[in-house]
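Q: How do we represent a protein-ligand complex in a form that can be generated token by token?
A: Start from the inputs.
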Amino acid sequence: MKYYSLNNKEHHSNFENAVVRGLAPDKGLYFPEYIPQLSTEFISNLKKMDPAEIGKHVISPFVGNEIPEAELQKILEETLSFDFPVKPIEPDVSVLELFHGPTLAFKDVGARFMAGSLGYFIQKGNLGKVTVLVATSGDTGGAVANGFLGVDGIDVIILYPEGKVSDIQEKQLTTLGQNIQAIEVDGTFDDCQGMVKKAFLDNEITDRRQLTSANSINLARWLPQMFYYFLAYRQLETNNKIAFSVPSGNFGNICAGLLAKKIGLPIDTFVAANNANDTITRFMESQNYQAKQSVQTISNAMDVGDPSNFVRILELFGNHFKDLKQHLMAMSYTDSETNKAIRSVYEEHNYLMDPHGAVGYLGLKDFLKINPEYSGVFLETAHPVKFLETVEKASGAKVVMPDSIAGILNKKKKSFQLSTYAELKEFLLEVD
Ligand SMILES: N[C@@H](CCOP(=O)(O)O)C(=O)O
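Then emit the structure tokens for the protein with LJ64HWYM bound:
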């Protein structure tokens, strides 16, 4: 498989180079040259296979022979070593829990897969030290910190918006030490993401450091997110058409779901469930893409005003809006609607959703109102404990603290603070 840059289709790369670089030299996102097709036999055998085996079938056409089979198997076993249960909530409404990994958020899958792949490429190619530069609005940071902790040859620098992530999210990305450094930016997630992308184009920095990204702009973070949909699909018992409602911020997860559909998974429709950061909801109504500065909400991991992966979604549909509209619906919800949903689902079904899952639930319910012939799954992308105060206040319930989190609560936060790109540049040039 080769990949091209979405800014210049003449620029091609193999998987390894795309993962090691993160972005194409022209700042474009990498996109596969063709969409592989899985056999119907594979789809009908999903129930019989273990997660790593499924992962191998799904990812192999994208990796080709660039990672040897035994190594890929090992990476996938480590990546998919926890559960991905689908639980019924109401008739035709189920939840896919993606928070059973080490940092209690769906990002663990991509972060672990990328850490394994990049670690392999560095070792094999004797590449020297690589700096992973990553922006987070909440969950990516913790997952990347955990996934890359202690990986040889890799330094990780995480930028996050000051005061705009939850306490537990902040602890997860600021307390590990070793090869992980956190930078608090006086700004929004979009500012952090903008700085990261700018650093990639800054020769003074790239002459000194070999940079890559661990956001879903990196293929090794984006592609493994397809696994969730295969692992969920095999648990569904329905003859109805299927819709997935995906809480969406940077649109990497839903883009991977749409790719899973394109390579052969029989899912009919996707709902992009957004909070007040409604750039894509507005686009789907007007066909006019107008990014706007993100606003702070209780579902902070989705506080993204200019979602990086949407260009990949457009490319998947050949930039044909009509076609895209048949498979993707977008909706936005306020914090007050989100809080109400947390409360009502808890009271009526004794199920505790986090604010992101609640936005996904709302999107699915609205979709089913106009499409009653479907069965739907919404993604619970993070454990409610990561938003302890919000969830307890909205639901009136007590959230049970998982042991894995209790351990980091008393650890001391360590971060650098900055507000401009010039300061980040100075940091990258000086700190080793
Ligand atoms: N929701 C994200 C924002 C970055 O998304 P990514 O998938 O591109 O890493 C977060 O939690 O940081």
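The first helix runs from residue 15 to 21. The chain has 20 helices and 14 strands.
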